[in-house]
Amino acid sequence: MTHINPYALGLDKNAANFVALSPLSFIERAAHVYPERTALVYGPLRRNWAQTYARCRRLAGALAARGIGPGDTVAVMLPNTPAMFEAHFGVPMSGAVLNTLNTRLDASAIAFMLEHGEAKVVLTDREFSGVMAQALSALGSRRPLVIEVEDDLAPPGQRLGEIGYEDFLAEGDPDYAWQLPADEWDAIALNYTSGTTGNPKGVVTHHRGAYLNAASNAIAWNLPDGSVYLWTLPMFHCNGWCFPWVMALSAGTSVCLRRIDPVQIYALVREHHVTHMCGAPIVYSMMLNTPAELREGIGRTIRGLVAGAAPPAAVIEGCEAAGIELTHVYGLTEVYGPSAICAKQPGWDSLPIVERARLNSRQGVPYPLQQAVTVLDPQTLQPVPADGETIGEIMFRGNAVMKGYLKNPGATAEAFAGGWFHTGDLGVLHPDGYVKITDRSKDVIISGGENISSIEVEDALHHHPAVLSAAVVALPDAKWGEVPCAFVELKAGSAATEAELIDFCRPLLARFKLPKRIVFGELPKTSTGKIQKFVLRERVRSASAIE
Amino acid sequence: MTHINPYALGLDKNAANFVALSPLSFIERAAHVYPERTALVYGPLRRNWAQTYARCRRLAGALAARGIGPGDTVAVMLPNTPAMFEAHFGVPMSGAVLNTLNTRLDASAIAFMLEHGEAKVVLTDREFSGVMAQALSALGSRRPLVIEVEDDLAPPGQRLGEIGYEDFLAEGDPDYAWQLPADEWDAIALNYTSGTTGNPKGVVTHHRGAYLNAASNAIAWNLPDGSVYLWTLPMFHCNGWCFPWVMALSAGTSVCLRRIDPVQIYALVREHHVTHMCGAPIVYSMMLNTPAELREGIGRTIRGLVAGAAPPAAVIEGCEAAGIELTHVYGLTEVYGPSAICAKQPGWDSLPIVERARLNSRQGVPYPLQQAVTVLDPQTLQPVPADGETIGEIMFRGNAVMKGYLKNPGATAEAFAGGWFHTGDLGVLHPDGYVKITDRSKDVIISGGENISSIEVEDALHHHPAVLSAAVVALPDAKWGEVPCAFVELKAGSAATEAELIDFCRPLLARFKLPKRIVFGELPKTSTGKIQKFVLRERVRSASAIE
């Protein structure tokens, strides 16, 4: 007797019960439900959700009228201004893919991205006109349409655009009938990762993942409807960890700012009653190191997501004292920004700060709507034992994982080998199931056949009261192969010597893990506050060659 | 020159970046991240998420071992007990579809559902053994495997099952390697709607919708991680509005109870620090009408979702005074329970109670992850003007909309005509975009050619201090065709006459809308507190026939 599945027939998808998942739906709802709530604050500018939605529709309509649509790339070279926020909706509403350029890059990198991404249109801000003019001239006849985003708050600079942003918007219809993507798997954004070697790779993300990771951010953070979010994290970095879309979902207010300036940050927090922000530990360090008188009048708690590096104990403790409640998250551009969270367990709050810092420094567990983050043996893809010691590679699986790298099937296949996304970060799995980075893959120091985690050495140095930041890389060594070399930035007004810091580490580290050399000075950082270890490695290499 | 879409090639789905959306992922994560947090409380029983997950895997494994899998139906006739909660995970983990039976139904309805749904297995509780024995005997040789869920807290009753639930679980492996559905569109649940005429229709929902509406509940309610949820809403009603899955997503605690008893409710609230609950207005009314001494010691605010009927002003006001913060939501079984929300706007809180009640009584706007709820002309499917007056049919569109009705292509096609789900509820669209029910389709009273909204008449009666509940139906009338007839239940210890209530309504209603007859007595209600108007209509018909 054949078994007939009663659920297999006549229960198909149709327009009533199946809609492509896209974060563009969030702004439509925000404008519908909370049309008059403030969406954007920037200098003296205030715009509500109805106005913001109308401007995004104008942008989409104007792009479409110029023939831009699915499969086309629109690049933007913009700081955290309202135009940058609008691009996150207006560009994909036209069907095109948004490519946010890292504004700290040089002309050759920008030219590479514009060429490789085949940008048809570029929105640019005069602060970056020097670099952008060079990049555009390198493109020659393949120059895209350049739209100049005028901004009274920008520093002086050359005007590059064929048309101004406001004039361009005026070409579009505020009621433009944009469409959801034909398929939720369609590309929404292209973000180039700043690899340490070779050309940048173009991470292509999709509407489904952006929708889900935006919702996941809201759930992970228990983000209340109508929050006030301060844009300390660059939107060019993994689309601001999906937060333009999160703010539309929660119909909150985005407070925009062009640069990280603690004085301005505190003024904005006071004026707009900021409730939420994101950033690397360095952002919070800067806020904590602001003179007390500038921090006065911040009555309420600010909630902060921190990623890019584990928050040091001093930052956790300082934030607690300053009324900033930190949550440590972890991710990469390939997983839409934060995609793992160091979920706080009952009881952690009452532990001593050192223990709290140790627990909160871990990369944690999957985001609520991410499927898995774990540590696997990169060869066998078998899970490592959850012993906190066995090192493997951190891998993700789930719907908030990129489509792949643009026009780079080799890198894509490598990243997805065995059905997991390989982060390249090495880590361990703790007995409670939390993932902990032991080292970015390239950061392992192999000394006398023993692996040394540079992070472990950095952690030890961070315990010294004079140390603001520390980065440890491998120094070639005739006897041991490699030894740890530490680059240390001291706190303003603090002092320490090489011998003092090495002595300080003795009780904290096995002998072979002690830094053999300490170099003092400011550390090179990316725009998002990540220390650029490849620069330090380069310095070490040059120095070794001379010696 | 052909335009080549650079995003069209080499960026396909694979095991790393595409996973079927299913709420089953939530319990895996809850058990992984919060294994020791309490998942279930029931009488003296406490079970954490690790234990609960292991039991659900046992259930799935035991079902699979008996040959149950995709396309099979597993029915349950259970109150809000831990087994009922576990069935929401264990059954779909086996690939089967969960059919929760309404425990208030009679044997012929149950027999119809078991037969129509082709249930292969039934889990049952001895409280319902009378009805279930009759239903099973009607099935004859098509009797499914009956599993007896033993419960010390159940009233006495006959044992029906071939095997006990605990023995059945013992057949399964606590580490059973369950699989996500092959397709997120696969069925997860079958819920029969209690139609007023004809056979019940079997609403088939899918994993994708259950996942999204669970997340939508969490976002709409800004539900904190680790909430304590009291099960005042039957889980057999649209899968408890998706809340078994929501509680897994937020790794919260479910406090189970067999029946709505205000004394027990307050005891549970006190003991377990309940933070959240759901129910029809009647549930909150009952809680408010509990003597003050039983309500003592409830220090914190409880947040309640209310649906099934708009919360009357007295309930909103009473809840405020009692520390229960209500949010009005709206939905149907076909849209996974709540799928629209009367989102509160800034400023509402400071309005007078009558105005606040008027605003909050509306069905509102789409849930955060639902695409649309609106009012359309049922013929043309064009939106009605947002004037608060033009009546149309309330319709939904989005991913939290059923697959269709089981083995009922005609009803499915009708429900989805024109690419919208037709609720059958009539309503208007207010200028602020909020949907407001004016009448369930069958409740319109047509008097002298004028439509009368029975809800409007009921609202007027609810303003009278002696009225607990009022329901208005059409009374056949020789002159006018139909006139409103009101059935009124008075508050305990209150009194009112027919003439008094009609006089009371005069300033509130147009003359032709005044109730022409008022019948006093207890109102017939469904298990979820909805007034059964079809019973009242039947009474009116019988009475008219005699007169």
TrEMBL record, chains A, B:
<protein>
    <submittedName>
        <fullName>Acyl-CoA synthetase</fullName>
    </submittedName>
</protein>
<feature type="domain" description="AMP-binding enzyme C-terminal">
    <location>
        <begin position="456"/>
        <end position="530"/>
    </location>
</feature>
<dbReference type="InterPro" id="IPR042099">
    <property type="entry name" value="ANL_N_sf"/>
</dbReference>
<dbReference type="InterPro" id="IPR020845">
    <property type="entry name" value="AMP-binding_CS"/>
</dbReference>
<keyword id="KW-0276">Fatty acid metabolism</keyword>
<dbReference type="Pfam" id="PF13193">
    <property type="entry name" value="AMP-binding_C"/>
</dbReference>
<dbReference type="InterPro" id="IPR000873">
    <property type="entry name" value="AMP-dep_synth/lig_dom"/>
</dbReference>
<dbReference type="InterPro" id="IPR045851">
    <property type="entry name" value="AMP-bd_C_sf"/>
</dbReference>
<keyword id="KW-0443">Lipid metabolism</keyword>
<dbReference type="InterPro" id="IPR025110">
    <property type="entry name" value="AMP-bd_C"/>
</dbReference>
<feature type="domain" description="AMP-dependent synthetase/ligase">
    <location>
        <begin position="28"/>
        <end position="406"/>
    </location>
</feature>
<dbReference type="Pfam" id="PF00501">
    <property type="entry name" value="AMP-binding"/>
</dbReference>
<comment type="similarity">
    <text>Belongs to the ATP-dependent AMP-binding enzyme family.</text>
</comment>
<keyword id="KW-0436">Ligase</keyword>
